[in-house]
Amino acid sequence: VWHSTPFAPPDAIFALTAGYQQDSFDKKVNLGVGAYRDNDGKPFVLPVVRKAKQILASDDSLDHEYLPIAGLPSFVKATSKLIFGADSPAIKENRVVTIQTISGTGANHYGGAFLSRFYEPWLGKSKEEKIIYLSNPTWANHKSIFNSTGLTAADYPYYDPKTIGLDLVAFLDFLRKAPKQSVFLLHACAHNPTGVDPTRDQWKEIAQIFKEKEHFAFFDCAYQGFASGDLDNDAWAVRHFVEEAIPLLVCQSFAKNAGLYGERIGALNIVASHAGDSEGGADRIRSQLLILQRQEISNPPTFGARIVGLILSDEAMFEQWKGDIKTMAHRIIDMRKQLHELLVNKYKTPAPGPNGWEHVINQIGMFTFTGLNPDQCKAMVERGHIYMTSNGRISMAGLNEHNVEWVAECIDKAIRP
Ligand code: PMP
């Protein structure tokens, strides 16, 4: 009965990691996967997470019962405050609907599924007409997540390979020309894969058009804290859109900022226009999200929710977490500086764009879009044993003081004809 099942291609990122693991070269480097590593290239368990685990382990009152369908209440309440801010008008007015999800991927999936079922401008429309616009480029999984939830993924212009920066003019123009009430996915901060974020002034221009055109903002926030080292700073764009009363939802992930990759802890937040159970009210939205959750996973998992719930609700642990985030964000920023310094001053490597190697310092978050072309990326893998995707993206978290010199040398060799 499976004769017609075609062979699916392997996931590019995971295939890259497999190649890295099989490689016996002593200077090999994995710059493919977007997971934080410490200065010795090792996975990092945040000290605050270790502490939370100890507290949980010694709490005999904890059992293994099902969580409520919406998730662990203390987690659900605290996570929305983290992204919107405790003083957010949306939170004060009880307009935020939050459910715990299977990390950021699960939140994106529910976001797509919920829009497909209930986004009013799409009622009665076919899959082809339910278009979600994604930045070109975007996280590799976005397209397939949305295509699998009854939507059609399409591109909007975002990145300009000529400047290795934001193509603001084309982006704004596209927003203006798109049909009213279009749905746009926005990376809240630390854009993956480019590391190119709008400035606050640019966000304001973007928000202005959203308002005028009544577009829907589908925020994906997988790196809060990772961009600048400051949780509030990285939530600025989302909060600005809330203040401007733009219809929106936000996907959250604690994979990166709490290092809880495998625990699959995240949340989906939908902002309603008003509280209560009248038409358009938060309670109606919540009731439908609960149905969605029940159909897909019944109840969300407990462990990660308990860890994050504890960190977010204990003042001292919250402060410690902020410190841990700074440790990660600043190590990455330091690596940017070191790589830049080596390329510019030691190797004097010809840059792929008009602004020298400034983009290595200016880009934000875990990734740098180096500007290397596919052939140069291939050379990095084949000659340097440096594993990276063919679009030129490198994970800065894979760099450390022991390998940055080798990476810079290989970039130099790959670029020179
Ligand atoms: N969105 C973006 C933009 C991402 O980069 C990622 C992780 N690579 C995710 C969502 C989801 O990650 P997770 O499901 O591990 O939280």
UniProtKB/TrEMBL annotation:
Q: Name one GO cellular component term.
A: cytosol
GO biological process entries:
aspartate biosynthetic process
* GO function term, MF aspect, one: L-aspartate:2-oxoglutarate aminotransferase activity
Ordered alphabetically, the record's keywords are: Aminotransferase, Membrane, Pyridoxal phosphate, Transferase, Transmembrane, Transmembrane helix
Q: Native species of this protein?
A: Rhodotorula taiwanensis
- Mapped onto the parent protein, the portion here is 30 to 446 of 525
State what protein this is by name.
Answer: Aspartate aminotransferase
Q: How does it assemble?
A: Homodimer.
Cofactor(s) for this UniProt protein: pyridoxal 5'-phosphate
Task: State the reactions this protein catalyses.
Answer: L-aspartate + 2-oxoglutarate = oxaloacetate + L-glutamate
Similarity field: Belongs to the class-I pyridoxal-phosphate-dependent aminotransferase family.
Instruction: Please indicate which superkingdom the organism of origin belongs to.
Output: Eukaryota
Q: Which residues form the Aminotransferase class I/classII large domain?
A: 27-409
What EC number(s) is this enzyme filed under? 2.6.1.1
Further comment found in the protein's record: In eukaryotes there are cytoplasmic, mitochondrial and chloroplastic isozymes.
Instruction: Keyword check for Membrane, yes or no.
Output: yes
